[in-house]
Amino acid sequence: MLTIDEYMEYDATGLAQLCRKKEVTAEELLTIACTRADAVNPKLNALVHREDTSAMELARRQDHKPGDGPLAGVPFVIKEVNAVKDWPYTRSTPLLRDNVALQHSRIAQRYFDAGLLPFASSNTPELCLTITTEWSLFDLCRNPHNPAFSAGGSSGGSASAVAAGIVPAADASDGGGSIRVPAACCGLIGLKPSRGLTVTEPDVGNAWSGMSVSHVVCRSVRDSAAFLDIQKLSRPDLFALPPQPPSFTDACQRAPGQLTIAVQLEHPGDGEIHPECHAAVEETARRCEAMGHQVALIAPPVDYAAAGRAMATLINIHAAQIIAPLLEQKQLELKDAQLSESVVRMVARGIKATAHQYLQAIDTLKQIERQMADFHQQYDLVLSPVLAHPTAPLGWLDMNSQDMREYASRYAAYSPFTALFNGTGQPSISLPLGQSQQGLPIGVMFSAAWGGDQTLLQLANTLIKGVVPIAAS
To answer: Which DSSP helix (H) or strand (E) runs through 365?
Structure first.
């Protein structure tokens, strides 16, 4: 049997290989994951619900009759916003405190079908509407690299669990940066796939009008590719199906060829980029240039502010789409619902939004999407920071603040880069290629044209070798 230290050296692909070779059992792997969770989760609060017993039964069945999925036997964590039958399904809001899922979400079903062993749900902020996991029905989540700092959000619980070595990869979703931001904060790999590539949940405005996509946070490029193979669609679903290789796992091992890389080191909102984030991008650009890629410094290629305003309109409407029926069902006024101040204001705006505003927002994003498509005729990739500043301390970005202007100002200054690519549907990846003087990870971000997921993984595979180490315990 593996020791806990040995277990934490492997990625999901490596653990699955051990299972296939019968060098370890699924039950043994799950036992280690649960033991590690018992040791570190009380301090981190990454996991908010455990199902050890049913997961152990599933592991024993797999050991008796091994699955043929590429990641069969690997312990796994599912973000609480994705439904798992008979598990609590609260979306981290008091209005759904006692809610239990009646069936698996489409993404959860993919995980079970692949032979993964989900045994816990991970912490998220309320309705996944911010980029730090603090205002949560389950209390705040901490960063394993330093518990005084944010693990990011909204997939902060998943990122914290992976960075702490509980699981090698965990379910995540990204509607404005919610995979890439926690990956950057916790020193992980976080790919936001192209719109239409992976399975989505159609029950909330066609996945936030196409802005939200699912994938994972993980510790190796090959795991990101393997999960993309699990999640990818073979025919169009809600949106057009982007180009894809027969196997991302195989494709990511091939060199990407010479790329033209546009380096963006100008804050889209006229703010400041912290010198440590600036330096991480510059060093990554130098590495890319040394590998033979063409690198050029650019100004922001489109109007980020216009994209942000349009996305805010849509997200407000989708927040209202969730909350308004619950208020009616419970016969509550919005002001009495015990929601965070940020959510209250977003829902209020969403309820008042007009059809004209909705369509105008859609049209704005479509125009910017076309502009980015034209831009990528000249440049293969955009390289930028994930965040304009190193990971924020807990309490700095408070979605329940009574000063919403200050909250909005801090949000815009801290995270100006990620959301654009949700609005345009482009793939974008956070890679742990920098470190702050405080010892916290700094992520850099590459973004490609729609359908360029393969290129991102291929480049990432040349920059990240092997398995990213966990946070020092």
So the answer is: helix 355-375
Write the secondary structure of 90-140 as one string of H (helix), E (strand) and C (coil): CCCCHHHCCCECCCCCHHHHHHHHCCCEEEEEECCCHHHCCCCCCCCCCCC
Give the pair of three-digit tokens for residue 347: 């829902």
pLDDT of res. 205 = 60
pLDDT digits (tens, 9 = 90+) for 446-468: 999 999 999 999 999 999 999 99
CA 283-285-289 angle, 5° bins: 115
Helices (H), ranges, 331-354:
341-352
Average confidence score pLDDT of the chain:
96
DSSP state of 64: H
Residue bearing tokens 């730090």: 132
Q: Which residues of 450-470 are buried (b: 16+ CB within 10 A; e: fewer)?
A: bbbbbbbbbbbbebbeebbeb
Q: Please say whether the dihedral angle defined by the alpha carbons of residues 424, 374, 429 and 295, taken in this order, is positive or negative.
A: negative
Phi, psi of 43 (to 5 degrees): -85, -35
Per DSSP (E only), the strands in 355-427 are: 381-385
Q: pLDDT (tens digit, 9 = 90+) per residue, 367-386?
A: 999 999 999 999 999 999 99
| Cα gap 235→158, rounded to integer Å | 29
Q: Is the peptide bond before 154 cis (omega within 30 degrees of 0)?
A: yes
- Separation of alpha carbons 205 and 81, rounded Å: 15
Decide: 261 and 379 in contact? Cβ < 8 Å: yes
DSSP string, 9-37: T--HHHHHHHHHTTSS-HHHHHHHHHHHH
The phi and psi torsions of 28 (rounded to 5 degrees) equal -65, -40
Whole-angstrom distance, CA of residue 210 vs CA of residue 234: 18
* Three-class secondary structure of residue 190 per DSSP: strand
Tell me how far apart the alpha carbons of residues 165 and 144 are, in angstroms, rounded to a whole number: 9
**275 or 68, higher pLDDT:** 275
The reported pLDDT for the residue numbered 66 is: 80
Considering only CA atoms, which of 372, 353, 354, 351 is closest in space to residue 306?
Answer: 372
pLDDT for the residue numbered 1: 80
- What distance in Å separates the CA atoms of residue 159 and residue 181, rounded to the nearest whole number? 10
User: Counting every residue, how long is the chain?
Assistant: 473
pLDDT band at 206 (very low <50, low <70, confident <90, very high): confident
- Measured distance CA(31)–CA(75) in Å, rounded: 9
Tell me the whole-structure pTM to 2 decimals: 0.98
Question: What whole-number distance in Å separates Cα of residue 458 and Cα of residue 75?
Answer: 26
Condensed to tens digits (0 to 9), the pLDDT of residues 228-261 reads: 999 999 999 989 999 999 999 999 999 999 999 9
Calpha distance 42→79 (Å, rounded): 18
